Amino acid sequence: MLNDIKVGLLGAKSSIKRGNKKTLTFIVFVLALIFINLVFLPSMIGGFSVMFTGFMQYPYGDIVIEPSMDNSYINNADNVLQKVRAVPGVTFVTKRLDAGASIQYKQKVVGSSIIGMLPSEEYGTSNYPYIISDGEFLGDLSRDEIIIGAMLVEGYFGSEIYDNLGAVRVGSFVNVTYSNGVTRIYKVKGIMEGTFELVDLNALMHYKEIEDVFDIGGSKATSVIVRVKNTDDAVKIKEKIISAGVKEQVFTRDEKSDAILRQAMQSIDMINVVSKFVSLIVGAALILIIIYINVLNRKKEIGILKAVGISPRSIVFSYAFISMFYVSMGIMAGLILYFFVMFYFTVNPVTFYETMTIIPEIQAGLIIQSIFTMLIMSVIAGILPAWRVSKESILKAIWGR
Amino acid sequence: MKEKILIRIKNLERHYKSGEGIVRALDNVSFEIKKGEFVAVMGASGSGKTTMLRILGLMDFPTKGEYSVQGLNVEELPEEERTYYRLTQLGYVFQDYALMNEMSALENVYVLSLMEGKSKKEAIATAKEALNKVGLGDKGNRIPDELSGGEKQRVAVARAIAKKPMILFADEPCANLDTHTSEQVLEVFKILNEKFGQTIVMVTHEPWHTKYVSRIINLKDGKIVSDKRRRNGFN
């Protein structure tokens, strides 16, 4: 076997060293494109997924607890908070109270969801405090203040797509009419910009204010948001929360995202799988054709090699090494090209749906998987034609039949 | 002392299908070749000489008959052992050089030694020695395209003799060469035979080649019509 490998390596080395360099360049270029095709789309999908997952953290944290089916509120949310805080792996917990309202500034009125929150607890629970592009985030005494989403404010990212409040700015006063008919005036304390509709079309207010407007004492909440130490453990922690005696509905972020994200991702994943499959078939066909033509052109040579005592196995090895070399070069060129493309799209992210920017995600696992897939494909595609010819009778091969 | 018999052929036949009939390329051929003989197998085109050489070189199978080398019935060897036997015991020089175009002369020669299991260093040393024997010691790094026809054939000879085969087969080795170059190649054979005792079986149709050989077997229509040993010849 070792002798077969040594002879195979010598055959491959001389074939590559003295073979046609233009053909080699062409093959490497095509294989590099195939490699790019294998890794680029998944990287973009990965970037999309990362972006979307990040957005879903705003409303749902890592785990969200919602009222049981028959209730509009979680009753005695403080009790729930206490139980959840005691669960190992939980880092932050807070309650929220959401309400529907219309916001008016001068003549312009828009409908919006108002999220009532405990501002100091949000620093550990969500990204809201960190996306204030103008003004400041709410404080624990901000009872008459409001944070407005950027898409509701003229001149901000994405505002042109939706009805907005016009030139409302930090310090402006807006009228908020709640779904129960109560109207109050608030000073705009900040404008938040998350570049995502689920965030930027909302407004934020103090939890106590919503509680007061709707006159719902007794520590009620529309959701309890939970952050965990390791997001991979979210499912386990969810189970522990339920075991801790929380009777309300408990969802992980992935579960909540199901309807919005997973369906979309499944479709994209399908496209990705088909695209990968086609790429691999094209790559395998390319290698197969190249090696097959090579083998056909050298049928006589192969016959002679066998006639002088070279084993069929070493002939097969030789072609396997040649195709592995082609693919390795293709992978290397593909990697260089890939990192260039990734760098370009990181600097110039793809804008999706006008408001979202997708930065492709470089996934080491995906790259390694693609490299192995291509190498295995090349070995199979390289071996098949050589194996077929090497099994032919010497005379048939020499006569080229 | 009794001369050692290397090859024994008995009632050898090779039939081919041709249209609806059968061609008897070899028809009841029997002979023996002793160690150190330089045999020319002669005959007109279609006489069966190349067919015979291919069977002797273990590239083809006889339809009938027996073929043994040093008493070993090589016909019965399984394919893998036939390949190994060709590698270690038999040398073969083809009419059209049959060199690997992308390998240098040296690589063309040492690839077989690598296959035999020698280290690269040993293989190269053996190949250089063989190239020196055929007068191409200084052209080892050239690829076949950079060599003349005669040089290519000498590389082919070097490849065949580097492993010191028991028998060297040559199938019209001078068919593509001019007279002067043919003489160079045949001189190499002559030296190998006389100086190193190499047993050689060469197919040729050129009568003047016979001055180099010790025995001539003539074939016609697949049958031996004459088998003569040179009395005052090289051996």
Folded structure, characterized:
The complex is a heterodimer of chains A (401) and B (235). By secondary structure, chain A is of the alpha+beta class. Chain A is built from twelve helices and twelve strands. Chain A folds into two domains: 2-55 and 260-399, no CATH class; 68-247, no CATH class. Chain A has a six-stranded mixed β-barrel with strand order 2-3-8-5-7-6. In chain A, helix 8 (253-297) packs across helix 9. Chain A is elongated. The longest helix of chain B is centred in the C-terminal third of the chain and has 18 residues, at 179-196. Chain B has helices spanning 49-56, 79-89, 105-116, 120-133, 149-162, 179-196; strands at residues 5-18, 21-34, 38-42, 64-69, 72-73, 90-93, 167-171, 199-203, 215-220, 223-229. Chains A and B meet through helix 1, helix 9 and helix 12 of A and helix 2 and helix 3 of B.
Largest sheet composition of chain B:
6 strands, mixed
Arithmetic mean pLDDT of chain B: 84
Number of strands of chain A: 12
User: If strands are numbered along the chain, what order do they take across the biggest sheet of chain B?
Assistant: 6-7-8-3-9-10
The arrangement of helices and strands of chain B along the chain is EEEHEEHEHHHEHEEE
Rg of chain A, alpha carbons? 31 Å
Indicate the structural class of chain A: alpha+beta
Describe the structure in brief.
The complex is a heterodimer of chains A (401) and B (235). Chain A is α+β, with helices and mostly antiparallel strands and 401 residues long. Helices cover 54% and strands 19% of the residues of chain A.
